[in-house]
Design goal:
Elements lengths: L2 H7 L7 H4 E7 L6 E11 L2 E5 L6 H8 L2 E6 L5 E8 L3 H15 L2 H7 L5 H7 L2 E6 L2 H11 L1
Antiparallel strand pairs: 1-2, 1-4, 2-3, 3-6, 4-5, 5-6
Length: about 150
């Protein structure tokens, strides 16, 4: 695996919006048609996640129906990384939502969202999946860096 890809995935709380912005291609839940969107990804405890505002999201419905998808890196490095969306348990959900809201509620980001985000609302209603990359080297590199 390319070192530039590993560095691009090595995001943290101080990463810029550009560094955490990716595209994903999912298959439509009903149509099976490929759908590509732009989204932020998050890294918590050496694992990667997708989440969003606490409203229904098409990408989440698509991943529930068809968990296989592609992550497209695009800022600083271009790569198409096959992955699977994995559900998360409640303790993981709590850790990830807490980390995401710590980021969302930072003044520089909160100003763009226009209001402080509420943990209870996010915990109860936000879509959340873990990104499990097909490439074992990515998972190994992530574990080595976070441990």
């Amino acid at each position: 695996m390319n070192d530039a890809v590993i560095r691009a995935l090595d995001i943290g709380p101080d990463s810029s919006a550009a560094e955490r912005t990716i595209d994903i291609t999912t298959l439509g839940a009903r149509s099976g048609t490929p759908r590509r969107i732009e989204i932020w990804f998050h890294r918590v405890d050496g694992r990667w996640y997708l989440t969003g505002m606490p409203v229904p999201r098409s990408w989440h419905a698509n991943l529930r129906a068809h968990p296989r998808f592609v992550v497209h890196l695009k800022h600083g490095v271009t790569a198409d990384l096959p992955a699977t969306a994995a559900p998360v348990d409640e303790p993981t959900r709590r850790r990830v939502i807490t980390a995401v809201l710590d980021l969302q509620n930072r003044p520089d980001i909160a100003a763009r969202v226009s209001q402080r985000q509420n943990f209870d609302d996010w915990f109860a209603r936000s879509p959340l999946v873990e990104i499990v990359f097909d490439d074992e080297q990515l998972r190994t590199a992530s574990s080595a860096r976070s441990g």
